[in-house]
# Entry
Amino acid sequence: MKQLEVQIMGQNYMLGCPEDSESRLREAVETLDSAMCKIRDAGKVKARDRIAVLAALNLAYQLLEPIPAPLETAQPPAYPLAGASDADSEASAAKLHSLLQRLDAALAATNASA
# Structure
């Protein structure tokens, strides 16, 4: 196991990495960094922990989407929680607000017990 220094949203992290998985880990870091920066840059969420949770939810959502066929015509998946710009933006904003309220409650409970 080797140590790999990476940067996510401007913060350095040392991660353990199997010798043959460095490129996959770097790709995962780049994907996460991009997702987090996109949410941060949208300006609606400032707290790093909230940004991380929303990015994780968006990435998990993308992983659970069925793969369209054929792949040549596939559209890139949308970020449903990071702020939509179409007619669904109100519904997305309501989902985001609900998620942030639940996240606040969970973080408050965690901080109260710590």
Observations:
- The mean pLDDT is 79.
- The helical segments are 22-42, 48-64, 89-113.
- The chain is about 55% helix and 10% strand.
